[in-house]
Prior knowledge:
- Keywords: Membrane, Transmembrane, Transmembrane helix.
- Residues 4-120 form the DUF4396 domain.
- By secondary structure, the chain is mainly alpha-helical.
- 72% of the residues lie in helices and 0% in strands.
- It has one domain (2-136).
- It has helices spanning 2-6, 14-40, 46-79, 90-116, 129-136.
- Helix 2 (14-40) runs antiparallel to helix 3.
- The longest helix has 34 residues, at 46-79.
- The chain starts with a helix and ends with a helix.
Amino acid sequence: MVVFAGGIRLAGDTLWASYISDYIGAVVVGVAFRYFTSVRRGRLRMWDALVTVCKADLLAVTAFEIALFVWLAFSHHVIAPEPPLNPTTPAFWFFIQIGLASGFVAAWPATSWLVRRGIKVMPWPAPDGDKLRRRSQPQS
């Protein structure tokens, strides 16, 4: 929205400026969210928490954003090149929703891989997780 309202252009197109600002914003928000939830879990050293958070979220956020940007570029240059879509039209927001869904699908394998490797963990325990663990342990 800021890029659109400000008319910022790179290589004659607002799309590239939007991609850069959106990616930086997504990384900052993702890292901040994970950082504050990891501090709640007891990581008190800021640098260690930030490094862990960056390792855990950078791959998933990048996969999400690449899929979103590919879809947006396709919709911008192929589906609706003239007149270009802008945030004041419903069609723009419809294409954004498709892009968000494609980003979700693209980030799923990266997130699953990070969880399996133990790099990314859930920020809070699942409800009833303790009950399930107690049932699976042998009774003495």
